[in-house]
Structures are given as structure tokens and as C-alpha cells.
Amino acid sequence: MLEPFLPLLHHPVSGRLLSSLGLIIVFGAIYAVASAAIRRTEWDTPESQRRWLVMVRNVTVLLFLLCTIVVWAAQLRTLALSVVGFAVAIVLVTKEWIMCATGGFIRSSSGIVRIGDRIALKGLRGEVIDLAVLTTKILEIGPDDSSQQLTGRVLVVPNSVFLTETVFNENLTGMYGVHSMTVPLPIDADWQTAERNLLQAAEEVCAPYLDSARRHIMHLSKRQGIDVPSVEPRVSIHLASHEEIHLILRFPYRTRQKSRLEQAILRRYLELNGGTPIPGRLPAPAAELKTARA
Question: With 80 as the cut, is the pLDDT of residue 127 above it?
């Protein structure tokens, strides 16, 4: 019964098909075993576990592709030499895929984005949860640039944006970073008192980790040879218009705690102001009453 199929088994293409099937089984088993071991291991943070899972998946896919290319090298070379025009057409059709794969390679090789980082690009902002070969998946943060809350939506961004767009990484400094927030005041407010209260609130909230943040930033400065900003809380004044003053507070924060620290500073600032965001606001002049006589 098997005699008609024996010539097919000795055909070179059949052998390569069987080899490809074997590669799928082997690499699938390797990924299943490795991912199961990673899930059973206790990690310090969920981001560390996700980072290892993503790395194992991507390495497995790349090794499988390399082995598949080696198996089919002769056929691919013959096909490329015989149908050059068709290959060019394929490149044109798959240009976006090639750009995404190239962007993914640049993203991974440069280390500009990692699992758990907060990034902003093309008007989008979120926390990175997956790094694939063609796409990057992030949890959206919004609804605006000043918000630090997750919206619950997942954004899938093609890796080609890493070739054409500017990417802002809010966690590039590692464990600690520096954040700025704005407190608006009317032009007639007691801005000196507001400035002192805002600075005092920031110093009280940041005091438990200020020394650690200072050491971390100094170590980063020496290791990478860059000039990093001071981590001491500071308040600068910006005259936004003839009706409004902006107090811009810069303070250090722990990674993944920016929202909580910002809220703690604002709450302490309101407590120091007696529950109002505008301390000592000057009263408006009373209107003059005019009596018209007949």
C-alpha cells in the first residue's frame, strides 16, 4: 500500500518538509518547557516575568526562522535567481512588514524600550506590556498628557514607528526619574505662600526616598557620562497670561509610583493651604453704588 508513496519520501522537497515539521515540534516543545518553567518561578515583579517570557518567545521564533532558512537554503537560492522580478514585487508588497521587523530589531538592539516602560509616541502614551517582532503592545494611559491613570485599553503599535517617529521613554533613567507638574493660580493670588506650601508638600512626600533617588541619579550620571537634573524638589514660576500664574513643580519619583506621589503632593498642598488651592487670594473690590436722581 505504501509503495506508490516511497518515491515521494526520497524526494529532496519531502525531506525538507519533514525537517521543517521536526523543527516546529522541537522549537514548540522548547518554548512550552521554558515558558512553563518561567511561570513556575517566583519573580520580584510581574514585569520581570513578562520580560523573560517575551525574550524566550522572540528568541525561539528567530532561531526557528534561521534553522528553516538553512534547511531551505538551496531552494530559496534557486528561487531568488530564477524569479528576481517576483522577489522585487514581494519586497514591495511586504515593505511594511520589513519596516516593522527592522524597527523591532532597532528597538531591541538599542534597548530604548523595555517591558514596564512608559512611552509616548504619535500622540499615544502607555505602559509597554509586550515586545513582538512586528508590533509593540502598550496599556494606554490617559485621557491627556497630565494624567497618570490606565484607561483599560490596549494599543498595538507597529514597530515601523521606531524608524520614523520620536519615542519618549519616561522610565529611561531606571528605578527613579524626575517629573514636572503644574499648579495654576490667578494673577491676584498669594503666589509666594502657594510656592512655599507646594515646595514643602513635595519635600515631605519625597523625603523617604530622596537620598536613594539622589544616589541612583548620580550613579547613572557617572556610568553613562550624561548631565542629569538635580533630584531636589524645585518650584519655578511661569507667567502664563495676564490673568494666570503657573507654579511648575519638579520632583523625583519612583518608577510606577508617579501617579500616587503626584496625588499625595497635591493633597498635602491643599492641607497646607487650609483646603483651598488658592491661598490668600485677594478679595475683589466692592462695586460702587450709584444712585440716580430724577
Answer: yes
Q: What is the pLDDT of residue 1?
A: 46
Residue-averaged pLDDT of the chain = 78
Q: Dump pLDDT digits (tens) for 166-186.
A: 888 776 556 777 888 889 998
Nearest-10 crossing angle of helices 73-82, 46-71: 70
Neighbours of 251 (CB within 10 A): 26
* C-alpha cell at position 53: 517570557
pLDDT of residue 29: 92
Tell me the domain boundaries of the chain. Answer: 9-72, 118-169, 176-272
Task: Report, at the CATH architecture level, how domain 176-272 is classified.
Answer: 2-Layer Sandwich (3.30)
Angle at which helices 191-206 and 210-224 cross, to 10°: 80
Quick check: 142 pLDDT over 80? no
